[in-house]
UniProtKB/TrEMBL annotation:
PANTHER family tied to this protein: FUNK1 11, FUNK1 6
Lineage: superkingdom: Eukaryota
Ranges of residues in domain Fungal-type protein kinase: 51-175
Organism: Suillus luteus UH-Slu-Lm8-n1
Pfam families: Pkinase_fungal
InterPro entries hit by this protein: Kinase-like_dom_sf, Pkinase_fungal
Region: Disordered, residue numbers: 246-270
Name of the protein in question: Fungal-type protein kinase domain-containing protein
UniProt biased composition (Acidic residues): 249-269
Entries under SUPFAM superfamilies matching the protein: Protein kinase-like (PK-like)
Amino acid sequence: MKSPHIQEDVMVFWEEADCTNQQEIRKKVKEIAQVHEILKGQAPGVPEATTGNRVLYIPVFPKLHPITELHGKDLFDVWHQCVLCHITLWKEGVYHRDISPPNLMWYKKDGKLIGVLNHYDLSSLANESGPRGNERTSAVPFMARDLLTERGQRGEVKHLYRHDLESFTWCFAWISLRYKEGVLRPRGSRPFDDWATLDAVACGAMKLVLQTDKEIPAGTHKGDPGWQFVRGCLVVLARRQSLRTAQAEESELEEEELTQESESESDMDEFLKSLERTKGWAKLSNPKQ
């Protein structure tokens, strides 16, 4: 029985029947959602009918709202739920690889905000053959700096979990510093407008400046909880990048070897925990602070 508190949307679309990757990803997400509580409500029901070489999909799911409508602890809570959904899927072999604000959504159920990691169009499966570089990834303002290099743009940098988690931090910065109580700030009083117009390498350079200088962006005050969290994330990102560079130099790794590194589940957990240990995280996640 449907909850009377949940408004539902129905979306009808056609997909080529030979697009097996997307069908397999939808099926995999549903399977994972059956065994992981954080994924409950993430996978819509998808009845299907076929005709010719195309498949008719009629997904039914709760009416989703953009994460940019939220602010403060509500924004953080939904963002965090999407982070947990993402890492669970990644460990189970579904690589989202398109972390951007339009793909972070929410709906309300029984008075609680439910975060939804949406749109798997650019996703891949662990057992999928082919390159794992930057041939398919999210919009430039939200991409990890490793992927905004010339090598990254040529698809020569292996896309890892840490790149998506870094994208989550850029998403939070974009939303929390450019919007005020769910409304986009006027031009001139919001940061990062130029990120959307620069090419990938130039945008990466701008992110490096922000990471290095940590200068308070336009329209932001020092005590803003969102900025305090973002600043803590920037420190973590810079520290981890320095550590990887030092390890590479010590091991005398070639640049190509460094960009084709792998990571374990413990590496993924440690990266997320390093963000959770920041003061900004504690302030946003604890209602009493």
